[in-house]
Amino acid sequence: MFVPKAGSKIQIQSYKHSGTIHRVWEETTLLKGNRTVAIGANDRTLVTESDGRTWITREPAICYFHADHWFNIIGMLREDGVYYYCNLSSPFAWDDQILKYIDYDLDIKVFPDMTFNILDEDEYELHSKQMNYPMEIDYILKKNMNDLIRWIRERKGPFAPDFIDNWYERYLTYRS
């Protein structure tokens, strides 16, 4: 299995359970990558939605993906602190210079004080029916939602103090 090396530019592709493309982040700098973990960073990167609309991210972000967890975590560095956007998703996979995963709709937004909101439960219910999510997927996602909430409360992984800042400092060494 090919894994891009640290410092290389990768693309991130999000899919839906049906196999259709959901969203593409055009360029992310890989800070750490192996078969188990991928940590990347981007700032003002082009994002393309499934309907062709595009937008540019507003702030630096550190992206955390793990092959053993059904979620990924984006830490966005804003003036008033780090905000997190967590996607319930399949574990990631490498396809050459592209990191791919399946987005399963459910999200958690975490604020700098570590309070959080669960988002898009209605979208999950709708897509679950439309795309016939298997019961096993529902079970896995609910278990991983609980794991993710535990990580937030315990300040584990990307929620640990200084995790995002330390990886952002590393990202700055790759910027030209």
UniProtKB/TrEMBL annotation:
User: For binding Mg(2+) 1, which residues are annotated in this chain's numbering?
Assistant: 87, 103, 107
Query: Needs which cofactor?
Result: Mg(2+)
Task: Tell me where in this chain the DUF402 domain is found.
Answer: 19-156
Binding-site residues for Mg(2+) 2, renumbered to this chain? 105, 107, 120, 123
EC supergroup of this enzyme:
hydrolase
**Does Protease show up as a keyword for this record?**
no
What keywords tag this UniProt record? Hydrolase, Magnesium, Metal-binding
Which reaction is the catalytic activity of this chain? a ribonucleoside 5'-triphosphate + H2O = a ribonucleoside 5'-diphosphate + phosphate + H(+); a ribonucleoside 5'-diphosphate + H2O = a ribonucleoside 5'-phosphate + phosphate + H(+)
Q: Which GO terms of the molecular function aspect are on file?
A: magnesium ion binding; nucleoside diphosphate phosphatase activity; ribonucleoside triphosphate phosphatase activity
Q: Which family does it belong to?
A: Belongs to the Ntdp family.
* Role of this protein: Has nucleoside phosphatase activity towards nucleoside triphosphates and nucleoside diphosphates.
HAMAP family on file: Ntdp (MF_01568)
Protein name (Swiss-Prot/TrEMBL): Nucleoside triphosphate/diphosphate phosphatase
